[in-house]
Amino acid sequence: MNIIVFGATGATGIEFVTQALQSGHSVTAFARTREKLGILHNNLTVIQGDALHEDEVIAAIEGHEVVVSCLGTEGLKPSTVLEEMTDHILSGMQKHGLKRILYVASAGIYNEIPGVLGWMSQRILKNVLADHRKAVNLILAANMEYTIARPMRLNDGHLKGQYRMSEGLPNGGKEINRKDVAHFLLASLQNESRIKKTVGLAY
């Protein structure tokens, strides 16, 4: 498939780009700083741009089949950057007739983490979760063929290829490696059972 990845130079984005290329897909990485990607491959195209600039996003999406967003925020202050960037992505998808989007959000966007861990996440990550929630709400309202990943705490460990999935959250799950979040996204590309699903991920 011909995939464009936003947030391609982030930790999860790099993992997805790497695995998608290894699986034979053609990948376009959209990045503000192309040097951060650190990947060379015949099936990789890098477009330098800023997802806060709508015209750059719309132009980049043309010619692709699937959009993957691994976008994140910088810092914990109130922000609307994820909402704005997602709005630009959806505009580009609508203009060029794309329907399939995979988006990495975070567990906690629906205040679904129970107990002390949930209380702490809402206290510490309140603004990040709110921005992700607004971005996800835009996707849900746009009538796209979406899959929303909601991973628990992200780690940099090895790919396991086995993890738990739930439309709520996996019971007792606390963490998951970025490589396995990328694995979930890649496995979801052509999995019709994951269309229009938001999925909690953890070990």
Please, could you describe this protein's structure?
- With 203 residues, this protein is α/β, with parallel strands linked by helices.
- The chain contains 6 helices and 10 strands; from the N terminus they run E-H-E-E-H-E-H-E-H-H-E-E-E-E-H-E.
- It has helices spanning 11-22, 54-61, 81-96, 115-124, 126-141, 178-188; strands spanning 2-6, 26-31, 44-48, 66-69, 100-104, 145-151, 153-155, 164-166, 175-177, 197-202.
- An 8-stranded mixed sheet has the order 3-2-1-4-5-6-10-8, with helices on both faces. It has a two-stranded parallel ribbon with strand order 7-9.
- Strand 4, helix 3 and strand 5 form a beta-alpha-beta unit.
- Helix 1 packs across helix 6 (178-188), helix 2 crosses helix 3 (81-96) and helix 3 runs parallel beside helix 5.
**Main sheet: strand order:** 3-2-1-4-5-6-10-8
Give the structural class.
Answer: alpha/beta
Major beta-sheet overview: 8 strands, mixed
Q: Which range does the strand content fall in?
A: 15-25%
Principal-axis shape:
globular
Number of strands: 10
Number of helices: 6
Please compute the radius of gyration using only Cα atoms: 16 Å
Q: What is the end-to-end distance? A: 28 Å
Helix and strand run: EHEEHEHEHHEEEEHE
Share of helical residues: 25-40%
The whole-number mean of residue pLDDT values reads 96
Which residue ranges are poorly predicted, with pLDDT under 50 across at least 5 consecutive positions? none
